[in-house]
Design brief:
The chain has 225 residues and is of the alpha/beta class. Helix content is 30%, strand content 17%. It has 8 helices and 11 strands. Helix 1 packs across helix 2 and helix 1 packs parallel to helix 8.
């Protein structure tokens, strides 16, 4: 089994320092490693992935994230991520997992390479998964019949009330919950900052940082089913 974890390359969102929410890469990374996956860390630009400093703050810097940043192999992948467009998603990739962080609001939501990767895997009945702001990459995508990928699918992602709580509602390209509903997604959520994962066929989404481990677990379960 091979999974491609996609993280942002963007360190700035309209003048606000941002990047990857490190926990949302670290937790799935170890879940997939433990399950025996070949794990590839990729990003739109390739190379070093910027980390949102907030994700290393008090109360957010999880044990898994600390372990990741002290793991030479993991840091090597973070520092030398594979450029997304160099990966052939038509063969040998079993799942894609879009990690969050507000950097995705810059380089996931209107990204032809990411769109192609997601649509290719979905059409081949492979797993498409995303957590927190990772689902910023989904609204641009379509099913093979041309309808929105999330239409009539049970999905989640960073909640509008969570976005307002972190006071980024004015600078994101769109509010994720609102957008997913607008294009026909059956959006579900838990209370703010509680774990919520939606599984609809091979489409798996997590609401927030608290959902990243459960989201990875769901990917593993669906992949092996």
């Amino acid at each position: 089994m091979k999974v491609v974890l996609v993280a942002t390359s963007a360190s700035d969102l309209q003048g606000h320092a941002t990047g990857l929410w490190i926990e949302e890469l670290a937790a799935p990374y170890y879940k997939f490693k433990e399950a025996g996956y070949d794990v590839v860390v990729a990003s739109p630009a390739g190379g070093a992935i910027p980390i949102d400093a907030g994700s290393m703050g008090e109360g957010f810097f999880t044990d898994g994230a600390k372990k990741f940043l002290h793991d030479a192999e993991a840091v090597g992948q973070l520092s030398h991520s594979t450029k997304l467009e160099s990966i052939d998603f038509s063969t040998g990739v079993d799942a894609i997992f879009l990690c969050g962080g507000h950097g995705t609001c810059v380089d996931f939501h209107d990204n032809a390479v990411l769109k192609s990767a997601i649509e290719t895997l979905y059409a081949a009945d492979k797993v498409v998964s995303a957590v927190c702001h990772g689902p910023m990459g989904l609204p641009q995508c379509n099913k093979p019949d041309g309808t929105p990928l999330v239409k009539d699918k049970v999905v989640t992602g960073f909640k509008d009330s969570e976005e307002m709580a972190v006071q980024k509602q004015a600078i994101v390209p769109f509010m994720l919950e609102t957008k997913l509903k607008e294009i026909g997604g059956k959006y579900e959520s838990a209370d703010d900052w509680n774990s919520k994962v939606c599984v609809d066929g091979k489409l798996i989404t997590g609401q927030n940082p608290q959902s990243s481990e459960a989201c990875a677990d769901a990917v593993i379960t669906v992949s092996y089913s």
